[in-house]
């Protein structure tokens, strides 16, 4: 939706225009600063939050769920009416040549009763950030985006943002050499942890990377890993000096954003570092048998972390928050019940009492 029809709730509730308060800029896209979660975000194994974020940031909001779930191709094929052929079965054609499209059984099987940990971790609890591919796969909650001012570029959405080019190799090289060119001949030797080591056209590789047979790389050493550069000549201006940069691209692009709990806890969730990681988030946050009438079926069990601002005991409308609904240490290790006294599955946790007594902790 384009302003003046709206700019979030301000525009919905007040009649601002470019000339009357609250001075909404006509022609700008209305984009609430909120990610809308669909059911598959949590319940579909393999959901890709970063892809969904690309479409949300491009302003193509109606395509975000399909990009996240991968149920549809971003380049719709006529044959499947946009559905991703790997995800659907086609029924027999009727007299008019129409076919039913249904989800493959394997896709339906990926819809899980209790959301897999990986789904929660799309937004919470980074895995680690050992290297650049890890940063992309295990640390980010949204995609980096670059402003592209080329109105004729079919890949540019209403907000003018597209995914930027990246190169995992170029930052580590001296600026006297260029990073390896990744093309159709060497593609497979440049796969790192499921990602291509370099992708996209940059100011350095425009003449060598075409997107069809060459995919990325050939960037100047010391540049990247994500490229937010575009010369002013791209927007039809005459450069005052060679390579003069378009400041708008530098300022209006979006840097990648870490997952929420990085800021809250500075913590990572890695297998092998805590005996409890093997239970996944579900072990403590789901099936908690809570009696709290405000906890709905999709509400993960919650603690008392005031820094989250939603467990501070405050009233939201007629409801209070749903804190104290998570399984606590003693729920599994001592009492076998949740804070309401209802029995929970304690996953055969060892009783801590004897060990605590020996250490003088129960005195
Ligand atoms: C924030 C992640 C999240 C989203 C989004 C979400 N759910 Fe859930 N859902 C959960 C969690 C967590 C549970 C398990 C809660 C528990 O047992 O404590 C659950 C449980 C359920 C259950 C109960 C399954 C059972 O057999 O007990 C159903 C049904 C369900 N969700 C359907 C939906 C639908 C439909 C939507 C979209 C409207 C949706 N969910 C969106 C997280 C989510
Ligand atoms: C699309 C992103 C997203 C997904 C997926 C998601 N969450 Fe959240 N979650 C959030 C946001 C945003 C908040 C609100 C944080 C705040 O206000 O501090 C939140 C709040 C919470 C809270 C309360 C935290 C607090 O600090 O008050 C818990 C617990 C939680 N989520 C656990 C889960 C679990 C378990 C799953 C998987 C079933 C899950 N979340 C899936 C984004 C997500
Ligand atoms: C061993 C049990 C356990 C496991 C496993 C676990 N959590 Fe927690 N988590 C807790 C407890 C207990 C708290 C509440 C701490 C408090 O009261 O402040 C908590 C707090 C949180 C919070 C902060 C908000 C809040 O409610 O205080 C988030 C977000 C969260 N967990 C997400 C996750 C995610 C995502 C996973 C899976 C990757 C996970 N947790 C796995 C027990 C667990
Ligand atoms: C969902 C149930 C559950 C919750 C909640 C839980 N634990 Fe555990 N915990 C277990 C299980 C099961 C084991 C045994 C794992 C193993 O040895 O393979 C364990 C093991 C442990 C151990 C190692 C004990 C030993 O003898 O080696 C410690 C310490 C521990 N938990 C502390 C905690 C603390 C502290 C909390 C709260 C933050 C907590 N646990 C919450 C289930 C739970």
State the main characteristics.
single chain, 363 residues, alpha+beta, two-stranded antiparallel sheet, two-stranded antiparallel ribbon, 20% helix, 9% strand, binds heme C
Taking all residues together, what is the mean pLDDT? 84
Beta content: 5-15%
How many individual β-strands? 14
Give the topology string: H per helix, E per strand.
Answer: HHHHEEHHHEEEEEEEEEHEHHEEHH
Largest sheet: spatial strand order: 1-2
Class per helix and strand makeup: alpha+beta
Apparent shape: globular
Terminal-residue CA separation: 64 Å
Q: Ranges with pLDDT <50 over ≥5 residues?
A: none
Descriptive report:
This protein is α+β, with helices and mostly antiparallel strands. Among the domains are: 1-34, no CATH class; 271-363, no CATH class. It has helices spanning 8-13, 39-43, 49-58, 64-69, 105-109, 117-120, 132-138, 247-252, 260-265, 282-285, 329-335, 353-358, and strands spanning 88-90, 101-103, 140-142, 146-147, 161-162, 166-167, 181-183, 191-192, 195-196, 198-199, 214-217, 257-258, 315-316, 319-320. The strands form seven sheets. It has a two-stranded antiparallel ribbon. A two-stranded antiparallel ribbon has the order 3-12. It has a two-stranded antiparallel sheet with strand order 4-5. The mean pLDDT is 84. One heme C (HEC) is lined by residues 35, 37, 41-42, 49, 115, 119-120, 122-124, 260, 281, 285, 300, 302, 305, 308-311.
Give a short overview:
This protein has 12 helices and 14 strands. The chain is α+β, with helices and mostly antiparallel strands and 363 residues long.
Blueprint (SSEs and pairs):
Blueprint: H1 8-13, H2 39-43, H3 49-58, H4 64-69, E1 88-90, E2 101-103, H5 105-109, H6 117-120, H7 132-138, E3 140-142, E4 146-147, E5 161-162, E6 166-167, E7 181-183, E8 191-192, E9 195-196, E10 198-199, E11 214-217, H8 247-252, E12 257-258, H9 260-265, H10 282-285, E13 315-316, E14 319-320, H11 329-335, H12 353-358
Antiparallel strand pairs: 1-2, 3-12, 4-5, 6-10, 7-11, 8-9, 13-14
The protein binds heme C (4 copies).
